[in-house]
Amino acid sequence: MTEERYRPGGVNPALVTPFTRDDEIDEEALRNLLRFVLPHVDGVVPCGTTGEFVNMSHGERRQVLEICIDEVGDQIPVIAGTGAASTREAIQLARHAQEAGATACLVVTPYYLHPSDKGIYQHFFEVARAVDLPIITYNIPQTVDAYIPRQVLEDLSEIDNIVGLKDSSGNLPYTMEVLEMTQGRLDVLVGHDEVVLPALAGGCSGMILASAQVFPEIWQQVLTSVREGDLQTARQLQMKVQKLARIFVRYGGGVAVKAALNMMGVKVGRPRRPLKPVGGAMVHETRAEIQLELEKLGKITPQEMSWAMPKGPLADRFSDVGITAEMIDGNGILLGSATKGEAPETVGIDLIVGPKSGPVGEAYARQLTHPSHGYEALTTIAEPNLTVKPSALIVPTVELANLRQASMVYGPTQAAVAKAILDNIEQKIIPLVALDREVMIAMATIHPRALDRHQLYANVHAAADKAVKMAFRKQR
């Protein structure tokens, strides 16, 4: 009786590789990660792209694989990432995987120096011939800069131990053509987190994903829903994780996924150089987006942030810039106020306008010369090196605790206030005589968790426009 052929499918996380502070393999962290995902997955895939295999030695890759096999035992399959640029190295790694007890090998397209179509076929053929393990070919043109040709896959599907394809291209026409050409001889697993639902609906048997170690239970629900024909539920679930999926894909899996896992208390360390967790491959805003999306999924506890929209009489809201209600009376000062939007893109604009020679002008100069840490004022510009008139200053009312918050104020907020002022000049709401005679201070209250720059810009523009109209129409 022949042994039944292994059929890859289900939910399989492309594991990150944890490193210590000394840049060594962190065995304890790796075992902890495996225990974390084990109840929710159908297999694990160490030493793939997300595992930073290209920045690891062969010895380290062997070590990681052996740890995974030892920890997992026979509970679920271990699909060893044994890809290499050269056929010789790929065979060496595949042979070790077989000796170590791996279930299958994941072999990436030869990279850096690109072979011909015949060379690609020969590469996979020789690796498959060198071992008895099932082989899953791996198409990831984003990093390899080449597809596995469809015709090559059609020919490879005739080899007994080439059993599958991990397709990370995100190119659904390519995926569908492979499914059509191989006619079930290859099990195709989607490797692009953003297109899981359509790939499964098209006939893929499962997935190998970086995100499957962050929210594997959701991918299990998507897979079950598709199998049961409940596409409405599957769509809702895909949309629930789509932003995180997009971030993980855009930032190369390992960098963003490690950030997410660390936030979740599953400590996996930093990526290896030259990758950087923040400020290099991934900016502060993206890290904040990951945090907020994990909060929405219930993966981490929401951080408490102290903030409140200003309340009370409008004339009392400018004391932080040195203008009291008493100063406002009789000094030709105009006031306007408006709020707009829902959390976390809620904004409020309290506007004060007055002559340069009066209290508003003095407050304007004071904010520029003596900025308050965390509440630094910013002049309003229409475009680089072109300030608007009347000269306007934006002063945040909520402390800017990090670079992401600062970028929300010193970015879309600044641009939106400038546009609102220019619009009101064009509409003749702001009289031309005010352009050189008066100055403005906009006290901007921006929700500290704001992330959607487009929506924030729209909300600030609407609030600033309303505040300007309120101020100048009172003058009339």
Question: How would you describe what is shown here?
Answer:
The strands form three sheets. Strands 1-7-6-5-4-3-2 form a seven-stranded parallel sheet, covered by helices on one side. It has a five-stranded mixed sheet with strand order 8-9-14-13-10, sandwiched between helices. Helix 1 packs across helix 2 (58-72), helix 8 runs parallel beside helix 9 and helix 15 (403-426) packs across helix 17. 43% of the residues lie in helices and 14% in strands. The chain is built from 17 helices and 14 strands. The N and C termini lie far apart (95 Å). The chain has two domains: 10-296, Aldolase class I (TIM Barrel); 314-475, Ribosomal Protein S5, domain 2, CATH 3.30.230.
Task: List key phrases describing it.
five-stranded mixed sheet; Ribosomal Protein S5, domain 2; alpha/beta; TIM Barrel; elongated; 476 residues
Counting DSSP H or I runs of 4 or more residues, the number of helices is 17
* Strands in their spatial order, largest beta sheet: 1-7-6-5-4-3-2
As a percent range, the share of strand residues is 5-15%
The CATH architecture of the largest domain comes to Alpha-Beta Barrel
Secondary structure class reads alpha/beta
CATH fold call of the largest domain: TIM Barrel
Q: How many domain regions?
A: 2
What is the CA-based Rg, rounded? Answer: 29 Å
How many E strands? 14
Which CATH class of the largest domain applies here? Alpha Beta
Mean pLDDT: 92
Largest sheet: 7 strands, parallel
Low-confidence stretches: none
Gross morphology: elongated
Kindly report how far apart the N and C termini lie.
95 Å
CATH superfamily of the largest domain: Aldolase class I
DSSP helix fraction: 40-55%
